[in-house]
Amino acid sequence: MKRTILFSALLAACSMTASATTPDGTVASTVIPEAQYPRVLPDGKAMFSIFAPEAKDVKIDICGRKYDMTRSPEGNWTVTTDPLVVGFHYYFAVVDGVGVIDPSSEAYYGCGRMSGGIEIPEAETEAAYYTFDPKVPHGQVRECQYFSARENAPRRCFVYTPAEYETKTDKRYPVLYLQHGMGEDERGWHQQGMMANILDNQIAAGKCEPMIVVMDYGNCGYIHGARKGEKRDDFGASFTPILLEEIIPYIDSTFRTKTDRDNRAMAGLSWGGHQTLQTTLYNLDRFAHIGSFSGALFFDPNKIREIYGGVFADAGAFNKRVKTLFLGIGSEENFGTEKISAALTQAGIDNTLYVSPGTHHEWLTWRRCLNQFLPLIFK
Amino acid sequence: MKRTILFSALLAACSMTASATTPDGTVASTVIPEAQYPRVLPDGKAMFSIFAPEAKDVKIDICGRKYDMTRSPEGNWTVTTDPLVVGFHYYFAVVDGVGVIDPSSEAYYGCGRMSGGIEIPEAETEAAYYTFDPKVPHGQVRECQYFSARENAPRRCFVYTPAEYETKTDKRYPVLYLQHGMGEDERGWHQQGMMANILDNQIAAGKCEPMIVVMDYGNCGYIHGARKGEKRDDFGASFTPILLEEIIPYIDSTFRTKTDRDNRAMAGLSWGGHQTLQTTLYNLDRFAHIGSFSGALFFDPNKIREIYGGVFADAGAFNKRVKTLFLGIGSEENFGTEKISAALTQAGIDNTLYVSPGTHHEWLTWRRCLNQFLPLIFK
Predict the structure, then answer these.
(1) Which of A114, A140, A232 sits opposite B32 (nearest CB)?
(2) ipTM of this predicted structure
(3) Distance between CA A161 and CA A179 in Å, rounded?
(4) Per-residue DSSP letters for A124-167?
(5) N or C: which terminal CB in chain B sees fewer CB atoms within 10 Å?
(6) Cβ within 8 Å of residue B118, ≥6 positions away
């Protein structure tokens, strides 16, 4: 058999994309193997390159702006952006009006669909807490399938177990339920959020308790705002009973968990923050630690005593019962989180406010929030 | 805060894609949440729909053929294909000449990049062995990061552990190292190959031994055929020492494995089949079970006694040493596997040939091969 024929056969179903090599910048950490673009320059500008000889217009849509690309005579389209904010950004190539994943990019579930992504790196010292460290023991992220009677279908969750879980086979662990945002899914915290590295590094340094982290799908991973027949106010509300009646029992029967409320936390980002408060504040018999990262919180600071079934009306009782109430936000967001925290404080409710300097409604804010939240819980 | 403003903020970085609903066929199992296309008709035809009002030409590239799509006045492009072969197919939307992932599709690593994919379902009875069964216990697929000194970088593998691994904490398990093909990566066997369902179902039925399955990156996941400075003959050859010196020791020190050769198998599909023979036949002190699924095998059947360092020269010794030698192939491929099997048999080498009826060089062939291979090993 001729080797060239075989290679052709192996690739029969596959299209190819050309990619050029230039000495500029560093290839982004978010590309597929051997891709040479996108690249990141030291000042945070990103260079994109897409081979599209037949297209008449190609743009890069990133950080709320569309950049026109320039065509070379051979049909290679390139552009260098303005300096971008550090952290992880979803982005799309727009080919003659169609938003698509840059063929050089890894794919990430965000924006209610698979999306391109690029990491604009921070300084190494800033990024250390979410960077893989060869010197520390590494936990595992386990993909688990289980059957949901409520949905009459299999569901999937990801479960982080700390490195020592493999060897300390008599030890039981507290559990954090950690939710993604709107338009995202159960992959986000591990893939974009770097949660495994954050946990590994904190556990190794003794900064947080070794714990199990469960990441499931919040039923809010599409961007049209609601399923057919679902009111906008109910968006993702179907998740709470699935969590309480199916996921928690599944986790507690499959893993060596501590099952009391003091050892159960829930946190989420953006819409997942909304879901976290909706879930935990009505079920404080199940949760003692609560985190909202850039939470989509709709409550009126003037009605603190009435909202969530009046749970904040008796501050003394609340503070005794809830061990952690954490509110995080990026400084460049405008979600009103600081006002909510201040109103809670004024009403006597113990809470921790964290403002991430210089970051937007994006994953770098949420990595930092997780990093701040972990040391507070299960103490 | 106005809810509408918040929703806008949440979606600021995201483009949207319109999708229409029709009563035709069934939405493919391989779409993102809430997508209505692609759909599969009972006769195996697939219907695609892409909203691209500004594009001048949109095609679907699937199963070696490009289908022209037709534009509606609103700019929605649709096409219905001819009946497609059952099983999983990579595919691309071609927008004005650029091959991209259909915005409605989940993304799969294949073709050396992230690709679209569609499952053309078999009859339920045919598909049962790789379908999630709520009635059987389910194993887990663990994503593990480890540091490779050879590559001076973190690497990732996926490790299937059977359901009973969680409870039989004194039991040790045999290990199958299972490789993807060229242009694919360590995700393929789990995501496209349905390996967890196959294992769960076989273990529950007592058809195969409970085992650990390790899926790592074969360093052949890009489609240009070789890394810079790498000869085509060496493509992916860097994987063998990583497997022997780093992955196997990592697995044996992290999981409760049986570490003798009788309890270690290796199998791979396509280029992974080539890598499997290259790895195992020169290291029979480490492996006793060998599987090649549509293997890219380059040996001359007339030189059986000479190839692989003469390992086949002494058939008696080989048959005593190698407990399983399995060669699988799809009936619609033309890889010469039957001739190789016949030549081996003629040379006195025990081997099992499996020909998958009606399937091509695609994942349905490899799911079937795995299903045939598993009951043979570790007995």
Answers:
(1) A114
(2) 0.93
(3) 17
(4) HHHHGGGS--TTS---EEEEEEEEETTTTEEEEEEEEE-GGGGT
(5) C
(6) B28, B30, B38, B40, B46, B62, B88, B89, B91, B105
Cross-chain Cβ contact A95/B98 below 8 Å: yes
Q: What is the DSSP letter of B128?
A: G
Residue A253 has φ and ψ, to the nearest 5°, of: -95, -15
Contacts of B190 in chain A (CB under 8 A): 143
Interface contact flag, B3 A110, Cβ < 8 Å: no
* Nearest Cα residue to B145 out of B154, B136, B132, B133: B154
Phi-psi region of B143 (alpha: psi -120 to 50; beta: other; left: phi over 0): beta
Element (H, E) at A307: helix A307-310
A·B CB contacts under 8 A: 244
Residue of A nearest to B339 (CA): A1
E strand intervals along B229-372 = 264-269, 289-293, 324-330, 352-356
Indicate the SS3 state at residue A92: strand
Total residues belonging to chain B: 379
Closest to B223 (Cβ–Cβ): which among A11, A55, A146? A11
What is the DSSP code (8-state) at residue A24?
A: S
Residue range A10-62, pLDDT digits in tens: 444 443 333 344 558 999 999 998 899 999 999 999 999 999 999 999 999 99
Asked if A10 lies within 8 A of B270 by C-beta distance, the reply is: yes
Segment holding B370, helix H or strand E: helix B363-373
